DNA sequence: AAATAAATTTAGACAAATCTAAAAAATAAT
DNA sequence: ATTATTTTTTAGATTTGTCTAAATTTATTT
């Protein structure tokens, strides 16, 4: 209950959560890069968060979240994604404009606010980029989606999420008529530049996409 | 343009705005009481805000907002009241629960957010307590309402705002069937305890209210 | 008008979060 | 297995906003 963290602490917790691969460990430099800060600052904060039992940390050995820490992280991710959903669905924000605003909104402390917002939005399970939104208990849909790059030829699939939130990506997707939910299949793969040809459902002409685009586009085979 | 204030600075600016009677001056102790802090802290912040040209301040002489400062204050008040409106109208918060949450939300910096929220809410001109909401240019409806205590007998009037946001007041108003917009007139005034008898439109039985209640209830004669 | 009281400001300290530069530990290379 | 390199931690300083205690200024009494 006493999960009372400062904005800075919350940002560290969230960053560790995002960097943490299952089983593995996060390092000081990784975290410093993620948070655009210096390694020395990270060390200071790690000591504080260890004391607060948010993460397991042995000097020089790396660190990862405790159960408590993971719970806190899921709370912050929940807030972030619900606010993003609100901004896009209710306030007509563009896809690429929401991240920074949600970055501020996620630190508003009222639990009642976020639960009522959840209800107001009708309990959405995915944010505008296709990332799952943790529910009130921290549970979220497991994503078994794969990079479009790894989708076998001629396998029908649906676009489920995008791992980049730039306006440049949004532009490109609009131009190519691709959005979350689009049904498609890979018709050809070109070895020379690893580009891919797609057929998108309900769209006549085949679409060609680059390796870079295929890497950030995630799909769920049907 | 560079109106870039910290949360603490914004709280000072807002507090001075609320304490500042037209023409008059605000004192260090008043502000310390309002912000639940110490006079020494206030003095420190005043020097900083004077440098930022937010307020006029001469040591020992009191202070008030500059045009720049008033503009900043109106921006914060706008955010606070729009968020309160959102919480009550869209998220079904109770009247008495919104202040603290809005106190946090008002510091979110995105101007685009607040203008889009304003549009989403359909440009409301009064918050749930009847206080006017500044528009995008800082303009707001002038309230020529008076305390119910000063309303002459037998003058039809409409409840326009309440100067107290406690749940105790909300309780009492519910019980007496009074809300913002209620039409009423004073039928009798009792000298002994300065209590007042009211007739509320569409409600058969007359209602008796105490001096304390009459003082926080504001009405607009029709 | 001097003395007392009240309000305000200054001086010095502290906690949070950050930084730079130097020291220590772990890893990689010869 | 030493040496060199990279990574991480420590030490000490800085900024923001706060505090207490002491000094100063203004206001109030007598």
- How would you state the average pLDDT of chain A, rounded? 95
Largest interface in this structure: A-B, 18 and 18 residues
Over all CA atoms, what is the radius of gyration of chain A? 19 Å
Strand portion of chain A, in percent?
A: 15-25%
**Straight-line distance between termini of chain A:** 41 Å
CATH architecture of the domain at 146-221 in chain A: Roll
Helix coverage percent of residues of chain A? 40-55%
What composes the largest sheet of chain A? 6 strands, antiparallel
Q: What is the CATH domain class of the domain at 146-221 in chain A?
A: Mainly Beta
- What characteristic shape of chain A results from the CA principal axes? globular
Could you say which structural class the secondary elements and strand pairing of chain A correspond to? alpha+beta
- The CATH topology of the domain at 146-221 in chain A turns out to be SH3 type barrels
Query: Uncertain runs of chain A with pLDDT below 50, 5 residues or more?
Result: none
Per DSSP E runs of 2 or more residues, the count of β-strands of chain A stands at: 8
CATH superfamily of the domain at 146-221 in chain A: Ferrous iron transport protein A (FeoA)
Q: Would you list the SSEs of chain A in sequence order as H and E?
A: HHHEEHHHEEHEEEHE
The neighbouring-strand order within the major sheet of chain A is 3-8-4-5-6-7
Assembly state of the chains shown: homodimer
Total count of helical runs of at least 4 residues of chain A? 8
């Amino acid at each position: 209950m006493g999960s009372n963290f400062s904005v800075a602490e919350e940002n560290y917790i969230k960053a560790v959560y995002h960097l943490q691969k299952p089983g593995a460990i996060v390092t000081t430099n990784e975290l410093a890069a993620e948070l655009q800060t210096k390694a020395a600052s990270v060390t200071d904060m790690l000591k504080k968060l260890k004391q607060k039992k948010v993460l397991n940390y042995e000097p020089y050995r790396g660190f990862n979240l405790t159960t408590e820490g993971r719970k806190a992280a899921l709370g912050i991710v929940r807030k972030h994604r619900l606010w993003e959903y609100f901004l896009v669905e209710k306030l007509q924000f563009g896809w690429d404009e929401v991240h920074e605003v949600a970055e501020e909104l996620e630190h508003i402390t009222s639990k009642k606010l976020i639960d009522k917002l959840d209800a107001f939005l009708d309990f959405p399970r995915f944010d505008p980029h296709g990332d799952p939104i943790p529910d009130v208990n921290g549970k979220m849909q497991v994503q078994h989606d794969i990079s479009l790059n790894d989708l076998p030829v001629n396998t029908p699939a649906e676009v489920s999420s995008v791992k980049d939130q730039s306006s440049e990506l949004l532009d490109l997707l609009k131009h190519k008529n691709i959005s979350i939910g689009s049904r498609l299949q890979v018709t050809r793969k070109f070895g020379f530049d690893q580009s891919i040809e797609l057929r998108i459902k309900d769209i006549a002409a085949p679409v060609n996409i680059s390796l870079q685009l295929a890497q950030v586009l995630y799909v769920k085979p049907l």
